[in-house]
Structure formats: structure tokens, C-alpha cells
Amino acid sequence: MSGRPEDPAARVAELRRLIETARDRYYLDDAPEISDAEYDALENELKELEGRHPELLTADSPTQVVGGRPSDAFAAVRHATPLLSLDNAYGVEDLRAWAARLERAIGRTPEGFVVEPKIDGFSISVRYRNGRLDRAVTRGDGLVGEDVTPNVRTIKSIPKSLSAPVQALEVRGEVYMPRASFQELNRRREADGQPAFANPRNAAAGAVRTKDPRITAERSLDAFFYVLQASGVVPPTRSHHQTLERLAAFGFATNPLNRRCATLDDVLAAIGEIEAARHELPYEIDGAVVKLDDLALQEEAGATSKFPRWAVAYKFAAEQAATTVRAIGVQVGRTGALTPVAELAPVLLAGTTVSRATLHNEDEVARKDVRVGDTVVIEKAGEIIPQVVRVVLEKRPPEAATFVLPTTCPVCGTPVIREEGEVASRCPSPTCPAKRRESLLHFASRTGMDIQGLGEALVDQLLARGLVRDVADVYGLDAEGLAALDRMGKKSAANLVAQIETSKERPLHRVLYALGLRHVGERAARVLAARFGTIEALADAPLEVLTEVHEIGPKTALSVRAFFEAAEQRELVRRLAAAGVGMRGEKPAPEVTGTAFSGKTVVLTGTLGSMSREQAKARIEAQGGRVASSVSKKTDFVVAGQDAGGKLERARELGVAVLDEDELVRRLEGGPLLPSPDSP
Description:
With 680 residues, this protein is of the alpha+beta class. It folds into five domains: 8-56, Helix Hairpins (Orthogonal Bundle); 76-315, DNA ligase/mRNA capping enzyme (D-amino Acid Aminotransferase, Chain A, domain 1), CATH 3.30.470; 319-427, CATH 2.40.50.140; 433-578, DNA polymerase, domain 1, CATH 1.10.150.20; 601-668, Rossmann fold, CATH 3.40.50.10190. Helix 1 (8-28) runs antiparallel to helix 2.
């Protein structure tokens, strides 16, 4: 695609930004903007680039981190054992390749599998104490999740007490919304003028992660369970299928389509049966999960930083349908980006009627050569966002004209611009009504200032009546004026005013993200807030200081500088401060000094005998060190366990000090610092 950066480092940075944005929209906002297939393509490209350029790989890369980060809206809970994601297989060859990798990991031909439907839901971990439900936590980033116990207690199919006396038990499963409940929910939302949810998964996630348990209860959620972790009086099982039987005996719902299979051919047959039943099920599935049955062999196979090697998700092919393009419209987003959207003849696809499909940007329209009047094949990859796969050229009408993106903004008429290296053309006008609308919605979003109740319908009313022009005006709204709006009422107005007041206490990184500076995502906002502490200090920071901040690239630095040099933006910040918005960073944790790892960068490689890699990382970080995933000249130590590989060789090439496990433990415990045999 034209416009893609040629510099690998720049492309890696761009891919990480795109992936992190997609994850936040999926995991935090419950409103995905791209399909599973598009997301997978971004991750695969990033993996490929990091493989070719290992010096660009970092510990916080999306390829090394599971899922999305936990929301600030809930209490954070660290999982006793990580909730990993699953690697994907997109066909028979991928599945056989996974089985071959598994064979190499365990040193024998794998036999005995369990095949389960892959529920399109929301992962949850539920803990029981003395037989009663004690705590429920979302997956979050796999290491730390959100405490959503009050909400989970409202889900009728999750036992509040167990059918057998158990001292301590943790189970993991998938919360989902049945098709019928989802259809009824969207019917009610559309009747109330609210946007429909994209799919049942996002409706379920939004219900589990709401601050009001009544909303969870109203959405008629259900759950299936598939992992049991226990202590106390519960004897361990030896196989996964026995685990499923144990779960059922305790009163947990397990999927009736689960199948135990002897061979890989049996696995493929079971997957075929599940796929054939897919549309008859009362819930959505998007594939099947294949797991090695023997738990001892699972332990032997182990896991990568993201995936267990003993399991894989077999993804079903995206469903497709043919329809015609009636028109191509253009939407204007928060940053002014113009997005072409195909208006389609309505067609039934994956159980819903589709009448629109995104075309992403001008280059994408040109690459696929989509024209008004064309017959196109569309799909809902991952059953989320419809997209045009290809044009059926043999059916193209002779009068079909090439689409040309307008040279002026379709909303305000301002000439659009396209900067070098960008794929999107943008409206540069700061007063564009479309940009104002999207900026207000972004500002109020869950990952921004989290002003619940300030949604699309209300923002449209506020703008139409001239009650707000920008985000600072939100803080001038009062209950009396809001109560006079359509579908509000006194109680709703009072609740919204309370939400607005509460948002004034959001920390600086949330404010920065909510303001929508270009190239400043949530991660960059956190980095800048931690570095400068106040918005005044950030506003006055010279460009050369910004570019020296770790993880802040030249584009982001220029964007920050341009934002605060604009008189209207400085005035906006002044008005927010005058309204009482705090805009100060959270107090940083005190710097750890005086240890062997204070201020040091450490890379772990190989297997440690006395602790896991995760435990070693936690102990090093607790002593002020930073654990990186790749070796560079900036690395201070490489800790080499058993079967250390390329990272050890790289350390020797660069002359980086190498510690064995004994020396690691000695330094962690504050003992005398002895040179490792491999130290230069």
C-alpha cells in the first residue's frame, strides 16, 4: 500500500500504534473498528518485522503482551497464573503445522485431544472460598485483570455456591450473550436512538465491565467453563477431559459439543461437525479450540510469552456474501481523516443485515477499485465489521466510474490535505462540525474522561442547540438545561452532571489521551504524564526535550509541540483548568536505589530452576531493574538459564555481562557481587 513507511523502525512504531488502538477499541471500549482478519494481518506483519530486526523487539510490544490492558475504572487484580491467549490456525495446514511444533516440544507424536467450540465471548476468572463465589476478574492483559465481582454475581448460570464442599477453587471460562438476548438488546437500543452493538461479544463485554450491575443483569448473559485450578480438598485431574467432567460435577456449565479425539484426523472431523452446527447454536462461535488432553504433557510443552504450545484456536473462514454498491460516502473522523464508506444493497450476512462496509482510505479504494454500481463480495471476518473483499469485475456496469476522494471536506468545505507518508487525507479545519462531534465523543469515552451518558444522541443534541462547541463547554452544562433535552429527564440529567463532576479528577494521562493529540495514544499519554507531571510543564517542553523522552518518537514529539503552540488549544487547556479539571500526573512510585539492579536493563533467556521467568522479572523490577526482551548495547546483564539460545550468543558478541542463575539469586538476595563465568 502506498504511503507505508520504508524505515522498519517507523513501520514497527506505526504497527504498534495501530494494534494498541485496535486493542483498546476491542477490549476497553467494546467497540471494535477493524475485523479479526485485519487485526491478525497487523500482528503478523509486526511479528515478521521484529523477527527480521530483533533489535526493534521490546518487552511491551503487542507481540509480547496478551490482550488489552485493564481499565482504570475497576480495581486491578493480579492473576495467580497468567491468562494466556491462543495462537491461531486458519486451515488444515496450519493445524498440522501446530501439531508438528507440539511434537517437537514434547518429543513424541501427540495423541489424545479435546476439541471445544470457540465461544465468541469474554474471558473471566472466578474464585471460590469455602464453596462460595468470592471474586471474579477479567483477563485484562493476561497478568492483571479487573475486579468485576458484583456484575458476575448477577449472571444466573455462574454458581454462587458449589455443589461440593471445596476450600479453594478457581475456574476460568467465557461469558457470552445468547443470540436472542443480543437481538432484543439491539432492538431496544435502536428504539431509544442508541447505536446498536457490533456483535454479542461486545455487548457481553460491555455488560461485564459496566459500573452498574443492573445493566449486567438486564442483558441475560450466560457462561461456559473450561479451566479448573484448585487447592485444598480437591484432588488433581490427569487430563483435560477429566477436568471438564469435574467442572460439571461442581455445577459449572460445560459445552455439550466438547469432544475427546484420539488423533488429529479425529480432531478435523470434530471441527467439521462443530462448524456444520454453527448457525443452529443459540450463541455465536468463531472457531474451535484444540487442546492436548494429557495435563502432564501440557506442562512439558509449556508456553511462549503469549500462547500455550499445547492449544490452538482453529478459526472458521469468514462468511461472505455478494451485493451491489449503491453509493460511496465519506465520513470525517476526530482527527479529520476522511474515510470512504460503501453504501450497499442490504444483504444477510452472518445472521445480520448489512448495508454498509468501510473502505478504510483512498489507497484501499484504489487498490480494490471499488466503484458505484459494482457487485462486491463482502465478509464479516470475526463477525464484527463488514468489509469489501473484492469486486466481481465481470458484473461491472459499463458506466461505473472510478471513485475520487473529494478535495474539500464533505462536512465543512475546507480543502483537505494529505501529508507525506500518511494514508489518509484530512480536513485541517479546527472548527469542522464533524471533528467537533467525534472529539466530544472521544473525550467522553471510557478510555478518555469516562463520562457515562454522554453518547452520540446527546452530543448531537448539544451541538445542534449550540450548548457546546468544544470539550471545555461540557463542564458548563447544568442539570436544568440537560433535563430539557429529548430523552433526558431530571434524574438522567443529574446523573450526567455527577459524571462530569467526577471526571475532573481524572489523572493527566487520561486528559492527554482524551484531548486527542495526534499520534498520542494511551501509552504515549502515560509516558508523557509520568515524565512531565503537569500539563503546564508538558506545554512548555521544547521539541528537543520531547524527542529525548523514551518511547516518544519524532512524529509524536512534533504533534505535541504543534498542539500546544496553537493558540486555540492553549486557550482550551486554560478553560479546562478554570473549570476545575485537575490535569496532574499520578504520583510516581519512588525510584528503587541501592540494589544490584537499580537502573539496570536485564534480559532473561533459557529456563530457570528456582523460579519462573515471570517471577524473576517481578523480583528484578521490584529492585529497580528493567527487564527487556532483546539484547542490545544498552543491556547491562543477560541472565542465562538452561538451554539459553540466541540471546546468550548475542550478549557474547556485544560483550554484555552474563549471569548464571546462582549469581542472579545472589544479587537478588543482596549478596556480594561475584563475576559470572561468562562475564567479560
